[in-house]
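User: I'm curious what two different proteins look like when written out as structure tokens. Can you demonstrate?

Assistant: Sure. I'll show them one after the other, since each token string lines up with its own sequence. Here's the first protein:
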Amino acid sequence: MKTWHDFSNQNPELAQLGKRLLFQSRIGLAYLATIRKDGAPRLHPVSLVMHNEHLYVFIPPNSPKCADLLRDGRCAMHAFPSPHDVAGEEFYFAGYTECIHDTSIRQVLVDDTKVLVEENEVLFEILLDRAMYKKLENPGTPEERPVYTKWQANTT
């Protein structure tokens, strides 16, 4: 598993594309897929925070997604679609979340990013195992086809 910083160093172009799609506004927006206790998938919208090229998410402690991540940190995320997209751009990544208990890291994130969080929200850093960007070539034509750019942590 790699931090966003590591991913960005290994594949700067893909990381930049992903960051642009995740952070279409000040706060990142994505769909988070987790694994329920019974093994079924669960999907949730979340807000993301990037600080010093590390990717984080704050989650309320009574949320089912928090319980999922505390029990099994595996996850996948997909950036919200852009309302202005005409090229069919998508960004997806999968990996693992690590619960951050260090209150000083939490405080720096809140102070530096000005993100509003409840005091009891649980902080997770998102570590990446793989990522994928998709864009349509020749959109809206009979020659339209998807073009993929992929990265995997253990192959770079």
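Here's a second, unrelated protein for contrast:
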Amino acid sequence: MDDRAKSTIVKTASAIILAGGRSSRMGQPKATLRLGGRALIERTIAELARAFDDIVVVTAPESEAIELPAVGAATIVHDDTAYQGPVGALARGLRAARHELAFACSCDLPMLRSEVASWLASLADGFDAAIPQVGGRLQLLHAVYRRRCAVALDAMLASGERRLSAIAEEGNSGISSGILIRIVTEAEYRGADPEALSCFNLNTPADYARALKLTDKE
């Protein structure tokens, strides 16, 4: 880790990477896609390590988990049940994180920038979550959450709600009672990430092809 990276580390927040999805549209595990000579999960961990001193990777149960490459000092935790969506996985990650506050992301963000993640963490002061809205959609897995959000996530699962977006829906105020969320507007977000590439995620082979072209320019 270089001196510049050390000087920017956020020592009051963790980073959580969710890597237990089915990747059905991609047709292969996203975490192990190769970009710039490394698996995507390695690339993501290395980038986040520039800004966070605690990294948690949440993956499928051991019997279902893909074989991950070396993940350095990251902590790996496993879901209880495979492919149940991000709600339970995020709750598990928040409980495993060393810090109360955590930047949470999916494992399929090839252009993720640590400075954008740490900037989002800075916006959570006085809030339980800071979630950007880009392209008319909440970027729920490129956002910041406090550990107390795990209680609301548990309540969502208990009610049968598996959509992570429900934590930010007014109609679910009973489920997420007491959770104070800051929605980061697109204009505000693009001030830090003008092309919104940090939250560009891979869903299909076409997305992967685009990511390969983008990384060729690095």
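A detail about the second structure: The helical segments are 3-7, 40-48, 86-96, 114-122, 149-158, 186-192, 205-216.
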